[in-house]
Write a structure and sequence with these properties.
alpha/beta; 6-stranded mixed sheet; 399 residues; 7-stranded mixed sheet; elongated
């Protein structure tokens, strides 16, 4: 089964007409995307968009053999003209299946938002799933079928991919291609970086994919350290990396700090933006968690872990520091680094980068700054990918 992506953009296209944003201003050439439309084996068209016939011709395809046109979502704006010879577009009711004379079977998949997803099985038995913009499958069960190719709004609804992975519909060998791409993410290298962290990819308009053929599925880094200054966006970057995966364990190392209303507001803001399927553990005991098998870990953050350890070894008192405190801290950092090296879990850890600013005025402040630098370096040495976040922009240092 062959799939030609006549367009890969959001319903309004990319760049959006008359949009002054920076992404739209730079979405030119290969980064420009027409509204998503999918041609399956020249016989089935998923979503009819303006200029579909010209897009097919540019891709070396024809719409002359299309026997069925299905819409996945309501189309805003003026009606789209149906090219001569094409059947009238329609939608399949949720849960029902349509059999085409070409041997394709199309099942409508219910969504949690407006629209319809389509599971297509080709005559060769290959399976693809096409999801509408802004939608995620509803009511999936553990017995759900697996797909060789998934076309989904990975940027806008990463939880859709998480749901598919939770029931085995998307596995390690599933080719996940992002469609309905909008101006939420800069195109080019930044889009590729974000999608690769989710185990997905994007392709230019006009690309033809062979469903079931082996593709170079992006490797999701198993261990990642995300560094950044205060309010740089480092926690958002870390959370984004795992939001397309189910059953994440969020390890909060800061505790509750009873009575501190400002801290409580920070904790609540973090909790509210996390997916509801994630669990939370408030602990600084990271080594046992790293030694266990289990779902991915998101540790936020190592700087608070270091504060707790320095409290425990008496690092703030010069006498205690000299009388074994420094040695004890080095041992704790070494144990953590070894646990990161040995872990079999996917780990994303957050830490502050504080060594580039003003030198602290106190000896304890300078000690903390120095030890955090050493901790970050030790942790980073065990990670496949290290990212520095500056002004909300992720700069890859390794991987």
């Amino acid at each position: 089964m062959e799939v030609t992506l006549l367009g890969t953009g959001a319903p309004a296209g990319l760049p959006r007409p008359d949009c002054p944003c920076a992404v739209c201003a730079t979405a030119l050439g290969p980064d420009a995307r027409a509204a998503t439309a999918v041609l399956v084996d020249g016989a089935l068209l998923l979503d009819l968009t303006p200029g579909a016939a010209f897009a097919a011709a540019r891709s070396g395809r024809s719409l002359g053999g299309v026997r069925q046109v299905l819409l996945s979502h309501p189309h805003d704006g003026p009606p789209v003209e149906v090219p001569s010879g094409l059947p009238q577009p329609g939608r399949v009711p949720d849960g029902q299946e349509l059999a085409l004379l070409t041997g394709h079977r199309v099942r409508a998949v219910a969504m949690d938002a407006g629209g319809t997803g389509y599971a297509v099985t080709g005559p060769d038995g290959q399976r693809l799933l096409y999801l509408p913009p802004g939608g995620a499958p509803a009511g999936l069960e553990a017995t759900a079928e697996s797909y060789h190719l998934v076309l989904a709004d990975v940027v806008g609804r990463p939880d859709a991919l998480a749901r598919l992975r939770a029931v085995g519909s998307a596995g390690p060998a599933t080719d996940v291609v992002a469609v309905h791409l909008d101006h939420d993410v800069p195109q080019g290298a930044e889009l590729r970086r974000r999608l690769a962290a989710a185990g997905a990819r994007a392709v230019p308009d006009g690309t033809t994919l062979a469903v079931g053929a082996y593709e170079e599925v992006p490797d999701v880094p198993r261990r990642t350290l995300v560094l950044g200054g205060a309010r740089s966006g480092k926690s958002v970057e870390a959370e984004r990396r795992l939001e397309s995966f189910p059953d994440v364990l969020y390890v909060a190392t800061g505790g509750t700090r009873g009575g501190d209303t400002e801290w409580a507001a920070r904790v609540a803001a973090h909790r509210d933006r996390r997916p509801g399927s994630w669990r939370t553990a408030e602990t600084t005991d990271l080594v046992p968690l790293l030694a266990e098998d289990g779902p991915p870990l998101l540790v936020d953050c190592l700087s608070l872990w270091l504060t707790d350890v320095m409290d425990a070894v008496g690092a703030w008192d010069d006498a205690e520091w000299a009388d074994g405190g420094e040695k004890a801290l080095r041992e704790r950092v070494r144990e953590l680094a070894e646990a990161v090296r040995a872990t079999r879990r996917t780990v994303v850890a957050v830490s502050n980068e504080v060594g580039s600013g003003i030198v602290p005025a106190t000896a304890s402040g300078r000690r903390y700054r120095d030890e955090l630098g050493r901790l970050n370096a030790a942790f980073a040495a065990e990670c496949e990918q290290v990212v520095l976040v500056v002004a909300g922009q992720g700069v890859v240092l390794r991987g």
